[in-house]
Specification:
Elements: E1 3-7, H1 12-28, E2 32-38, H2 50-75, E3 80-86, H3 89-99, E4 102-108, H4 121-135, E5 138-142
Parallel strand pairs: 1-2, 1-4, 2-3, 4-5
């Protein structure tokens, strides 16, 4: 059986997503991987020397968020692995799924009532369908 990959970024929606992935891993007796992709591309530093420092800080933040997720899983008796990637989110997510042993991806869907979010709910649904078709993994959207 392949692993369950939980893409997470922090915040309330990520807590719900992590909880769903933890319960699913426990039910299926599956390996659970928490994946955080940080993308410094949203900021254009005025000094190129700052780009490396920005990447380091985002990775550090990502590792911290994943440590918190691991503690939540351990409290329910689920062992996990973590992975932090840097760069465009979609590309890194698909690459990880293609080259790993993932059977299921658990991702959060933007809250429909929110006015501001990184993605429109329809975009996330299309993303999920594209991943199902191109990578061949089950995708569970958590609202």
């Amino acid at each position: 059986m392949g692993s369950i990959v939980c893409a997470t970024r922090g915040g309330e929606a990520s807590r719900r997503t992590q909880q769903r992935a933890i319960i699913l891993a426990k039910e299926r007796d599956a390996d659970l991987v928490f994946l955080c992709v940080v993308d410094p591309g949203f900021v254009e530093p005025s000094d190129e020397r700052l780009q490396g420092a920005l990447e380091d800080e985002l990775k550090r933040l990502g590792r911290s968020l994943l440590c918190i997720a691991q503690v939540r899983a351990e409290e329910l008796g689920v062992e996990t692995r973590t992975e932090v990637r840097c760069g465009p989110v979609l590309e890194n997510l698909v690459e990880y799924l293609r080259h790993g042993d993932a059977e299921t991806l658990v991702i959060g869907a933007p809250q429909k009532e929110r006015k501001v979010d990184a993605l429109d709910p329809k975009d996330v649904e299309r993303l999920a369908e594209n991943i199902r078709e191109s990578v061949g993994v089950e995708v569970i959207l958590v609202e």
